[in-house]
Amino acid sequence: METIFITPKIISQKCRYALRAIFELASRHTTEAVKISEIASSQAISPRFLENILVELKQAGFVMSKRGNDGGYILNQPAEKLTVGQVIAFMQGAVKYNAVPAYDIDSARNGDYAFSRLWQRLNDSISSIYSNTTFADLVKEETIAAKDYVPNYVI
């Protein structure tokens, strides 16, 4: 049986970078400000583009900035309280994964109602996952995966 992966193509690149920036701050487990260059380097994001994203995230209250030599960005709230869904909703509004056409009994074909319900359940499920996944959850998953990884140094 073939495995089907649903890729989040409907999530813009800018939104993905915002998610990765917040993930990077959450994964540092620190109250120290992190420089844009460090976040950009770690997440392979253009520093200039990241700077604009972080300004937007600051305006939304997701991050705070600190000026000076020790300046940079820090999370404005605990990673346990910040969800992926909150960031997506701010960065690009409500996301629809599959267009769910209105069911019209007068022009319906056999199966239209069943498929429209299927697409709606799919949308609801994905939205629920985003809304209930915190950045602390993601950091924990990444930490577990890193512990399971065993590098092979055989030459």
List keywords for this structure.
Arc Repressor Mutant, subunit A, mainly alpha, globular, 2 strands, 155 residues, 6 helices, two-stranded antiparallel sheet
What is the secondary structure topology, with strand pairs?
Layout (H helix, E strand, L loop, with lengths): L12 H15 L8 H8 L3 H13 L3 E4 L5 E4 L8 H9 L19 H21 L2 H14 L7
Antiparallel strand pairs: 1-2
Helix pairs in contact: 1-2, 1-3, 1-4, 1-6, 4-5
Biggest beta sheet summary: 2 strands, antiparallel
Continuous helix count: 6
Catalogue the unreliable spans.
none
In the CATH classification, which architecture applies?
Orthogonal Bundle
Query: Considering the protein shown, what is the CATH homologous superfamily?
Result: Winged helix-like DNA-binding domain superfamily/Winged helix DNA-binding domain
- Helix fraction by DSSP (H/I, runs of at least 4): 40-55%
Strand content: 5-15%
End-to-end span in angstroms? 36 Å
Q: What order do the SSEs take from the amino end to the carboxyl end, as H and E?
A: HHHEEHHH
Question: Class by helix and strand content?
Answer: mainly alpha
The CATH topology label is: Arc Repressor Mutant, subunit A
Q: Could you report the average pLDDT, rounded to the nearest whole number?
A: 85
What Rg do the Cα atoms give?
20 Å
Number of strands: 2
Specify the overall morphology. globular
